[in-house]
Write a structure and sequence with these properties.
Number of domains: 1
Shape: globular
Strand order of the largest sheet: 5-2-4-6-7-8-9-10
Radius of gyration: 21 Å
Order of helices and strands: EHEHEEEHEHEHEHHEHEHEEHH
Number of strands: 12
């Protein structure tokens, strides 16, 4: 979930080149026709459902680092969970330093099984179609490896730190697996038995496909305070193409919205939200209309910039152009936190934002604060609009930052303005606030 410095150089793999005809000008948005995923190939029978790991049944021995040139151990939740590289560094179980910032303020715990995730989302490195290529615990996810750790070990470290823990929040990330619901309950109960949720609040990144309302209620009763649904796709058509029948995956738009509405009822206003990935073929109007719908329901949007994940069905496609991404970032922030409605904004014939619904001076103030361009997610302890889930470099290399895991400085804001193509109207720009980590 990060791009880290393991003591030498920062791993800074560039995005693949845009899939455009030779000599064509770079686009300022990713259009629908361009962003077609490859069709998934069916893995051979001997590779399905984690067959290699199940057959070898190698017992785990503490922390497992992906691609460690050993047979992948037989690890299952709730005894084992995976976590982002950034979280592992923060927890002290991996060495390394983060470029320009601390590691992360959110401890992401990802359920794990030898059979892996049974979904086949086109943009995801954990997708089922990779069974023949790589065992589940060795697959990359949002740009990096996810080490597997005994849950008890992770809890021991955080519980020992108490109020001094660097984590502002813990998030249990579900996957599509028959045991995902019951094991999420087990992980949550083990956590809240040792770690006070008032010290480290808990979010649930849900798997609606396997859930019912009672599951949502149970998680709230056990101490989770925020519940999120990864819609990812901004429209039903895009959802079907990237997460549903279009890629032989079990998810459905209607089921995701059913669970999102249950989350609204059970968790209450400002304690539920949805993830949205920008740049997979939707228009900017599509995304911001969805953001407005979530706000009207009482929830929040958590925004991700599309990055062509290695090994995914979309790894041949271009990352989201920065101008498209910055426009949507700014528009989303204004709707979520600035009191602007999508119907106050203007859009061109391609659905791109051409006006943000604010006078230029007020817009300058928002841009100069820089918060709109930081990673969006569940809140931490600094402010409602500063996310604990900072996902350092989870959607871009450090050389071309998409979501800033720290407060952008003056140089960063100059770059952002160039990407937005918005020239400040004031003569003396207000300096950005000091960073808080």
């Amino acid at each position: 979930m990060s791009c880290y410095r393991p003591e030498t150089a920062v791993a800074d793999a560039p995005a693949p080149a845009a899939a455009l005809p030779a000599g064509a000008k770079p686009l300022d948005h990713n259009p629908w026709d361009l962003m077609q995923p490859r069709a998934p190939a069916r893995p051979p029978k001997e590779a399905r459902n984690g067959a290699r790991v199940v057959a070898n049944h190698v017992p785990p021995q503490g922390v497992y680092l992906p691609n460690n040139n050993v047979l992948t151990p037989f690890m299952r939740s709730p005894e084992y969970v995976q976590m982002s590289t950034a979280a592992a560094i923060t927890l002290g179980i991996m060495p390394g330093k983060m470029y320009r910032c601390g590691c992360t303020r959110c401890l992401n715990l990802l359920l794990t099984y030898p059979e892996g995730c049974r979904a086949n989302c086109a943009y995801c490195g954990l997708a089922r179609h990779r069974e023949a290529e790589r065992d589940y615990a060795d697959r990359n996810f949002i740009r990096v490896d996810w080490p597997a750790v005994p849950l008890a070990q992770a809890i021991d470290i955080v519980a020992k730190d108490g109020a001094k823990t660097p984590f502002h929040r813990m998030c249990i990330s579900m996957i599509t697996h028959p045991r995902s619901d019951v094991d999420t309950v087990a992980v949550l109960k083990a956590w809240t038995d040792r770690v006070d949720p008032s010290t480290v609040p808990v979010s649930i990144l849900s798997n609606p496909t396997t859930m019912e309302r009672d599951d949502v209620v149970r998680l709230r009763e056990l101490g989770a305070d925020i519940f999120t649904v990864a819609l990812d796709a901004a429209t039903p058509e895009l959802f079907e193409r990237t997460r549903g029948r279009g890629v032989q995956s079990p998810h459905s738009w209607s089921k995701y919205w059913e669970i999102l509405h249950h989350a609204r009822d059970v968790f209450g206003p400002q304690h539920f939200g949805a993830h949205i990935i920008v740049g997979m073929g939707e228009t900017e109007r599509d995304v911001l209309t969805l953001v407005q719908e979530l706000v009207d329901l009482g929830g929040h949007s958590h925004m991700f910039c599309f990055f062509p994940e290695q090994g995914s069905l979309m790894d041949h496609l271009p990352a989201t152009p920065r101008d498209q991404w910055r426009r949507v970032q700014l528009g989303r922030y204004l709707i979520d936190y600035g009191g602007v409605r999508v119907d106050q904004m203007r859009f061109d014939d391609e659905g791109r934002v051409s006006g943000f619904g604010l006078p230029s001076g007020e817009l300058d103030d928002v841009i100069d604060r820089g918060v709109a361009f930081r990673t969006s997610g569940c809140p931490g302890k600094f402010a409602d609009d500063v996310s604990a889930c900072d996902r350092p470099y989870g959607d871009s290399p450090p050389s071309d930052i998409a979501s800033y895991p720290f407060a952008p400085n003056r140089s960063d804001l100059k770059t952002i303005r160039k990407q937005l193509r918005i020239v400040p109207q004031r003569t003396a720009p207000v300096p950005p606030p000091e960073d808080v980590n």
